[in-house]
Request: fold
Amino acid sequence: MPTYVILSRVSPDAFADPAGFRQLAKAVSETIRSECSGVTWKSSYATLGRFDVVDIIEADDPKDVERASLIIRSVGHSITETMVAIPWQEFLDAL
Reply:
């Protein structure tokens, strides 16, 4: 199953208090779970750089990834950048 990386930057207007991020993350997670059954969540990381969140997911259908990314944008009030992640050895073997 292909692996994807979704990088998200949350809008400063998404919540008034930092504690509100927990509720925002829960809403995004629940919406993706109910609307993107083809997406398997592998892990999520908070980052202290250009992006606020890095999500690693798997999905057979790129349309499921598109939908998940759009949910993060709309429900999560975020800007996203999504890319395919190729396992290093697969990448080297293809050269």
Summary: Residues 20-35 form the longest helix (16 residues). The mean pLDDT is 95. DSSP finds three helices and four strands in the chain.
